[in-house]
Amino acid sequence: MSGKVKSKAAAVGDTSGGEHLANASVNLISLRQHARLELTRLLDSVRGRKALVLDRSLSGQLGLVAEVSLLKAFGVAQIHYLLEQPLATDCEAVVYLVRPETRLMHLIADQVQGHIRAGDTGKKYGVFFVSRRTMLCERVLSDRGVYGELLLGEYQLDLIPMEEDLLSLELPGVFRECFLDGDPTALFSVARSLVKLQTLFGLIPHVSGVGENAKRVYALMDRMRRESPGDQYNVVPEIDSLILIDRSVDLVTPMLTQLTYEGLLDEVVGINNSYIDVEEQVLTGKPPTNSSSSSSEPAKRKHLLNGKDSLYKEVRDLPFRSLGAILHRKAGEIQETYNKKDDAQTVSQLKEYMKQFKTAHTDHKELQTHINLAEHVNHRTLKDMRFVYQLDVEHCLVAGNKAVTMSVDECVSYVDGLIGKMEPMTKALRLLTLLSMTAGLDRKQFDAFRRKVVQAYGFERAMQTLANLEAVGMLRASRSSWDKVRHSLRLWTEDAQESKSQDDICFTHQGYAPLSVRLIEVSSAAKEGWRALDDVLRLLNAEHFTHQQELPVSIQERAKIMGQSSSASTSSSAGTSSVTDQHQQHQQQQQGRKKLTLVYFLGGVTFAEISALRFLSERESSDRRYIVATTKIINGASLLDDLIEFLPNELDRSSLKEL
């Protein structure tokens, strides 16, 4: 029995999935371990051999904190998705891990009642809500007559460490809930995640933010802090400041096509929970085999994209147009390593060469994968004249009166043509909303576009979708203040280089600096903070706030002592292999350097914005580093999908072209 307990402890403490977090500015490995520990406690609360039934939307998140071996160590024998069908399992216990949605409660009730009708009455059931248990869900289970059969609980899966500088709740639909429906549930999850961070890494002294929902999150976080035990924050702060920013403050940036390697990958193939899901030949570069049926869908394969891939970490934030030169240089370096074989004459030289060869071989495989991915993306984008023309339209709209490639009238005609051809609704609305938020629409144009959208995509669906876009401020019949905002913040650079060599964040969109990141950059550099942006924020119809969280006296004294002795504590063991030890060594090296700021995007953040913040962290003239947290990683298409109404049993009129 003691051996079994020991194996469980070893499984929980396993850090093999967190190597890419070792160089984080704070110990994100401990945050990941906390999520693993909470999960195993839930699994242990239901005795016996278990079938784990997952809400499909949670599988990606769960995979970032727990591997199959961990689940097996805690009695999970089978893993199923929660589907509209009976659950066939011989396990003595069933554990459901689901989001608090009434639709899912009905599916659970159906499966439990199915077992009872079949005479299988000995099963134990546990239902654990991610990340909040709701009375509405409990009411559904009670009305269906299965409430008494279930053990109910919560799995508070909050911020998940995706990268050493990136955390995400990965909550679907937050933008719609918060900015359209007025549902504050997600804000509670954000506030609770911040409380957890501060119990681990200390109370954050400086808190500021922009937007109404940012204010609400701070109020919730402050209330939770005051209601919690005083010794819960008995840690010297590692994070100097927190910036909360509403997605609604900058809705222009997500509508633009991201032009970093990672951003464009997300636009073309989609990155979900650090994975892409693409055809096998895209990764291998080999044509599909003749054995596969020409009429069947090509087999897809999931591929992990994060900091474990050293080449991906090096190139992901680069402008896509400059990627070829970097990959060519990397190929040359690998070939040089291979060529050293002829220089190795002695046994010791051969031994050293084999070490270099193994590293080069791994690098070679990574390089080939990214060459194939880049070629796939290039074929779908820069080699497609329709894509290039669309980029010109986007740049014309954000550049305004500085545009040289085309006129706004040409942009209007292009958007009109997309709708007339019944292009996918998301594609057409992405440019229509961008047109509205930058160049503006007069009443006549607005009414004409609304009429054409209704004719192209159907009355009921289109009218409700257009109403949603109006409600969140993405579509309106009014003049736009974009030109003033762009000029005040220097958001457009006509002669932008296709590299990161210039000292500006405009490389992320080939000339456009993301508005959200520019606001953060300016406020962080100005002595007045956010007050330096009063005029711009007034144009954006956004208010800012700044608060100081007072540290306990004991923590202030400890911080002073640590500051005085930091120079004497920089030595560490160079031979440690533990990921945690590597983090501690890195943290010691960081003492006395840049201050750390946590930027929390409410409603989603794009990969391009993350790249821009990484650039600010790496810039020598900057006095701070940034960690990004978000409710979800998004792009323009996924944000619009939250707002587009999909009616049941509806014929998608855009598919008529294929008939």
Which regions have little confidence, pLDDT < 50, spanning 5+ residues? Answer: 566-577, 650-659
Oligomer: single chain
In whole angstroms, the N-to-C terminal distance is: 64 Å
Our count of helices gives 27
Mean pLDDT over the residues: 88
Round the Cα radius of gyration to an integer and report it: 26 Å
How are the SSEs ordered, and which strands pair?
Layout: H1 2-13, H2 28-44, E1 50-54, H3 59-65, H4 68-73, E2 76-81, E3 93-98, H5 102-117, E4 124-129, H6 135-143, E5 150-154, E6 160-163, E7 166-168, H7 174-181, H8 185-201, E8 206-210, H9 212-227, E9 241-246, H10 252-255, H11 261-268, E10 275-279, H12 280-284, E11 300-304, H13 310-315, H14 323-339, H15 347-380, H16 385-399, H17 408-420, H18 425-438, H19 443-457, H20 459-471, H21 482-489, H22 515-525, H23 534-539, E12 544-548, H24 553-565, H25 579-590, E13 595-602, H26 607-618, E14 624-630, H27 636-643
Describe this structure in words.
The chain is of the alpha/beta class. It is built from 27 helices and 14 strands. Strands 6-7-14-13-9-8-12 form a 7-stranded mixed β-sheet. The chain has a 5-stranded parallel β-sheet with strand order 2-1-3-4-5. A two-stranded antiparallel sheet has the order 10-11. β8, α9 (212-227) and β9 (241-246) form a beta-alpha-beta unit. The longest helix is centred in the middle third of the chain and has 34 residues, at 347-380.
